[in-house]
Amino acid sequence: NELSRVLEMELPTKEYETLNGWLIGVLGEIPPKDSTREVVFKNLQIRILEVTEKKIRKVLISKNLTRETE
After folding, report:
1. What are the backbone angles phi and psi of residue 22, rounded to the nearest 5°?
2. What is the pLDDT of residue 26?
3. Closest alpha carbon to 23 in 12, 8, 33
4. 13: burial class by Cβ within 10 Å (0-12, 13-18, 19+)?
5. Which residues of the chain are modeled with pLDDT < 70?
6. How far apart are CA 3 and CA 9, in angstroms?
7. What are phi and psi of 9, to 5 degrees?
8. DSSP one-letter string for the chain
9. Residue 57 to residues 13, 14, 22, 33, 43: CA-CA distances in angstroms?
């Protein structure tokens, strides 16, 4: 998918159709509105910036180039 191509790595999203679905699966919930959450996966830091009642609308993905991949 396009996100994997841009990040130059595959996210484990086989069970999910979207990044939103994967993040909710990892967190176990839709984060409350106006909360800040982060998910770290390998050398990626995914910061949740905007949430509605039903989905994560905006994230910031940062790639840590010095962190070893797991």
Report:
1. -65, -45
2. 92
3. 12
4. middle
5. 13, 67-70
6. 9
7. -165, 155
8. -HHHHHHTS--S-TT-SSHHHHHHHHHTSPPPTT--EEEEETTEEEEEEEE-SS-EEEEEEEE-SSSPP-
9. 17, 20, 13, 11, 22
- What would the two tokens of residue 62 be? 């940062």
Report strand pairing: 44-51 vs 56-63. Answer: antiparallel
- pLDDT score, position 42: 87
Residue whose entry in the numeric block shows the structure tokens 């841009």: 6
Give me 28's structure tokens. Answer: 């176990």
Residue pair 4/11 in contact (Cβ under 8 Å)? The answer is yes
User: Which pair of tokens denotes residue 42?
Assistant: 């390998």
